[in-house]
Amino acid sequence: MNLVRLIYASTISDQFVVDDIGRILKAARVNNKAINVTGLLSFNREFFLQCLEGTRQDVNNIYHKIATDPRHKKPEIIDYQEISHREFDSWNMGYLQNTESLAELIYQHTKSISFDPYKMNGESAKSLLLDIRDEIKQAESQ
Fold this sequence. Notes:
This protein has 4 helices and 5 strands; from the N terminus they run E-H-E-E-H-E-E-H-H. The chain is α+β, with helices and mostly antiparallel strands. This is BLUF domain-containing protein.
C-alpha cells in the first residue's frame, strides 16, 4: 500500500464560527479512523495548517472535501509526497490549541509572531507539525 502525506493551509471563511473547530475535530477523528488516515491539525483562529497521512485515494478524497468546505477559503497544498512511514500514527487527528506553547513553536519555525502558513515551504511546515506533535505527546504524558 502506497502512503502519502499531504500538508495544506487554508484560511477560515466568514461562515466559520468558533464552535466549528470542535465539530471539525470530532468528525475528522471518527471519519479518519474508519479509513486509517492519521494526521494533525493546527489552528490559530485565522489559519489552518493540517497534515493528512494515508492512502493516496483516501487523503485525496479528504482534501477535496476540505477544499469545498464553506468554512475554509484559499486552500493551498504546501507539500504532497509518498512516504514510507507515518509521522502522526498516534492520532486520527491530533490538535494543539492556540496556546503560548504553540505561539513559541510558530516563532521558532517562522521567526515571526504572526502565523501565516502560506509563507512556509513543505519542509518547514512538516518540521513545525512534528514539533507540535511532540508538544502534544509531552503534555499527554504529564
